[in-house]
Amino acid sequence: MTSLLEKLTKELNPLGDTPALDAQVLLAHITQKERAWILAHPELTLSPAQEKTLVKSLDQLKENIPLPYVIGHWAFFGLDFIVSPDVLIPRPETEELVECALSWLHAENKKRILDVGTGSGCIPISIAKNAPDLNLLGIDLSPSALNIARQNAEKHEVADQIKFIESDLLANLQPATFDLITANLPYIPTETLKTLDVYTREPTLALDGGTDGLNLVRRLLKDAPRYLAPTGMILLEIDSSHGNAALSVAHNAFPKAESRLLQDLSGRDRFISVQT
Ligand SMILES: C[S@@+](CC[C@H](N)C(=O)[O-])C[C@H]1O[C@@H](n2cnc3c(N)ncnc32)[C@H](O)[C@@H]1O
Known about the structure:
By secondary structure, the protein is α/β, with parallel strands linked by helices.
């Protein structure tokens, strides 16, 4: 007999690239069970209320609403984050930025961290959950994104370590010094963005990087020297096609620092590190 999971996987097939995983995630959400439980129980049937939620969710998915927004949460760095259409859906590449930040923090025993363009708060919250006694600040231009970030910090019990403020990059920042500045800023060139499916699915403010995609990176790196500690690090996520251009922006802003291009797990240029 065909299981509910198999039927749902088939139904989700035209709606995304990972129908089997999406079907597991959706059923896990509706039944409030783990994905492993769903896989281990092919006999699963839904209650009438759960059935109703499934029908509603399928309608939303068919309207091109991403699954994380339909279920209202998404996994990142082994944690479950609240998400809404006000924030970017956290991506797996960004988990690599968190890993890199954590290895540096552990090796250097540094404590003061600034995350710019924090969105759901997934970067500072994942860092705070995996390193002790940190002092973190998250910045975003979007008040509604900050509202989600604050909810996530409460949910993961790190609200006492992370402050969130509304600011256009570093414009509203009081004089301060940070050991580590992380940022996954919008980096898709405006005209390219308009041609992509993501344009209608996630907030433009989280995606639009201006004419060449590097506007925000350029502005951040120009102001960052005033806020970075003498032996500090900046870690930026970039578009894989911007490697050399972003590196040259970093060299210009920090001529005496060691700026490097780092690759993601698929071997693509994905991060810039600047070490002073
Ligand atoms: C690509 S999303 C990254 C969100 C989150 N850090 C992550 O990795 O999932 C970029 C974020 O930058 C914010 N943003 C855009 N322009 C900004 C600006 N001028 N100043 C501060 N934040 C900005 C957006 O609201 C969005 O939350």
